[in-house]
Each structure stands twice: as structure tokens, then as C-alpha cells.
Amino acid sequence: MPELPEVETIKLQLQKHILNKTIKDVHIIDSRLIKGISPRRFAAQVKEKRIRDVFRRGKVLIIKLDEGLFLTFHLRISGWIMVSAQEEKCARVVFILADKKRMTFCDARALGEIRLAGDWRALPFIQSMGPEPLTLNVEEFIQLCAQRKAKIKPLLMTQTFLAGIGNIYAQEALFCAGIHPERSAYSLTKRELGKLHQCLITVLRCAIEKKGSSISTFRHTDGENGDFASCFKVYQRKDQECSRCQAAIQREIIGGRGTYFCPQCQK
DNA sequence: AATGGGACCTGCGCGC
DNA sequence: TGCGCGCAGGTCCCAT
């Protein structure tokens, strides 16, 4: 479910609601999500620690606790986080906070993961992560794409290349830039790359402003929906009219993933 | 280096 | 209503 804008939204909401609260207890409903440490040890380590900071790297949400410990959450496809007083649907791991509220990691498909780390930067997935798209300048982006033969759409989604872009925002950015998702990265001109860079930033910023996209299960920490889905120009719009040229939006499998694009104005 | 397939999981909507 | 299939915002691992 979550790409950069959704994780960013969760981060901002958690900063508002759980900062400086102490975790009094942990209920592990589904221990499969706790990776790299036994569930028992995980719970023992986290208990009575105070939440000192909440931040994001790519699609990973990171919570700094006391004593140099960090919780990392990856929501994969179907995860979301709720802060509430009640039991939540699809609850997998529940952190009981000192004010009796609960921070619940919910996940329909149970593919998400939670880790506890001393040095979060050393976690393999994070260590190999590419740069943050929102702080990368255009020259750096052009440099990154140089000599990459891969199709641009799967490449944008490769986390070691660029962090935080997934299936929705790759497609929306490529539509915005008028670039066909199957173009080789190195075939793109500087002008096209400049446009793509600008579109990535515009789309991501807009999605953050709208508090993400709510497809299927994704909710904010208070259960509200994100509003960006109404801004989709191609995603899930097969056979609908392109907003630029009125051609029918097409769906194809590219790099193993469903991909929507306008066959007429994405070249 | 790039691409393709399978694995990990569960739930929803659709056509019959 | 029931069933099978395709589909799903992700990533890893292996083979070619």
C-alpha cells in the first residue's frame, strides 16, 4: 500500500500524536511480522521505552526510542498504522501507550515487517537504498539515469536506485512527464529527464499535501482517507479518456506489474 | 546489468 | 449463493 507520500503522512501524524509517549506494553498478535529478533525479546526490549522521534527513509517508517533503539516499520503492500483507543481490524502488533491509546500495526496480507535495531542505517534494505527523490537535484537525477539500460518505470520503482517510489507514483510521474514507461532510462534526453525529475517532485508533493492515496485498506492513523486517488491521471483508469489528449488509457504488464499509461501522449 | 518467475500472504470483485 | 480466477500501493531470491 504505502509509497513515500503515504509513509510521510503517517510520519507527520505520529509526530503529532505519539511523540514522548511511553510504550507500556506490546501485544504481538501475529509474530510473523517481527523480523530479526524473537517476539518475546522484542516485547521485552520495547516495553517502558519512550518514543523520542519519528522519521522516514524511503518507504520505511522509523521510531527512535530511548537507549539508542529504533523501531522500523515496513508496510509492504497492505499495511497501515492506527492510533486509537480501540481494537482495530487486521491488527498484527499493538503498542499500548501510557495514555491508554494504542498504536496498532494493521496489515491485511501480513507481508509487512517490524524490526528493532540499534543502528537502523545498517539494516540491509536501508543501507542499499538510493537517494530521497525530494532532496535530489536535477543534475544528480540525470547522473543516476546515465547508462542505465533498464525500462524507466521499473527503474523508478527500484529502491536501490531511488527510495520511496512505487507502482502508483512511478506511473503518475511518467504520465506527467509524457514519457512511455518502457523507454530505456539511457534513451531519455536531458530535457526529458529534467521534466521527469520535476514531475516526480510535483506528484509526490501534491500527494503528500493530499495525505496520500487510499486504495483498498490504506487509512490515516485516525482512520481517515487520503485524497490523492481523485487526482490519478492514469492509475486504475483503463479505457477512460486521457485528460490531455482524450485517447483511451491502456493497461499493460511492465516489469511484472500492472501499468497504466496514455499510448498517445506518453512517448 | 536486466528481466522473468516464484515465494511470501490475504481479501476483494467479477463472471459463470 | 458458491467457486475459481485475476488482481492488489512490495521485496527477496534464484535462474537465465
Strand content: 15-25%
Return the average pLDDT rounded to an integer: 96
> Helical stretch count?
7
Major sheet details = 4 strands, antiparallel
Structural class: alpha+beta
Compressed to H and E, one letter per element, the order equals HEHEEEEEEEHHHHHEE
Q: Helical residue percent?
A: 25-40%
- Low-confidence stretches at least 5 residues in length (pLDDT < 50)? none
In one word, what is the shape?
elongated
Total beta-strand segments: 10
Integer-rounded radius of gyration: 19 Å
Assembly category: single chain
Strand order of the largest sheet: 1-6-7-5
End-to-end span in angstroms? Answer: 28 Å
Can you characterise this structure?
The chain contains seven helices and ten strands. With 267 residues, it is of the alpha+beta class. It has a four-stranded antiparallel β-sheet, covered by helices on one side. A four-stranded antiparallel β-sheet has the order 2-3-4-8, with helices on one face. A two-stranded antiparallel ribbon has the order 9-10. β3 and β4 form a beta hairpin. The protein is elongated and about 55 Å long.
Essential attributes:
22% strand; DNA-binding; single chain; 267 residues; four-stranded antiparallel sheet
Annotate the secondary structure layout.
Blueprint: H1 4-17, E1 23-28, H2 39-46, E2 51-57, E3 60-65, E4 70-74, E5 79-84, E6 91-97, E7 102-107, E8 113-117, H3 124-127, H4 138-145, H5 152-156, H6 167-177, H7 190-209, E9 250-254, E10 257-261
Antiparallel strand pairs: 1-6, 2-3, 3-4, 4-8, 5-7, 6-7, 9-10
The chain binds a DNA duplex (16 and 16 nucleotides) through helix 6.
